[in-house]
Design brief:
The longest helix has 22 residues, at 10-31. The chain has helices at 10-31, 38-43. It has a domain at 10-35. It is mainly alpha-helical and 77 residues long. The chain has 2 helices and no strands. It comes from Dehalococcoides mccartyi. This is Reductive dehalogenase.
């Protein structure tokens, strides 16, 4: 029942914390994607994962025919 824990100096403890923090910071910096402005962020297309049977289509390019003359705008009020 001599020592329950090892004795480490405060200096060695802080040195270990600094080295591990620097290692984690370097690992995070190299693996994270770099965006220079918001345009690059919006162009990145990893946000929404859809099931395999759902396909993305262009706006105003529906899969069924639409009679646009019958369409009426919604009331703003």
């Amino acid at each position: 029942m001599g020592k329950f824990h090892s004795m480490i100096s405060r200096r060695d403890f802080m040195k270990g914390l600094g080295l591990s923090g620097a290692g984690l910071g370097a690992a995070t910096a190299t693996s994270a994607p770099v965006f220079h402005d918001l345009d690059e962020l919006t162009q990145k297309h990893e946000g929404q994962r859809l099931p395999w049977w759902i396909k993305e289509r262009d706006f105003f390019n529906p899969t069924t025919e639409v009679d646009w003359d019958l369409m009426e705008p919604y009331d703003q009020g």
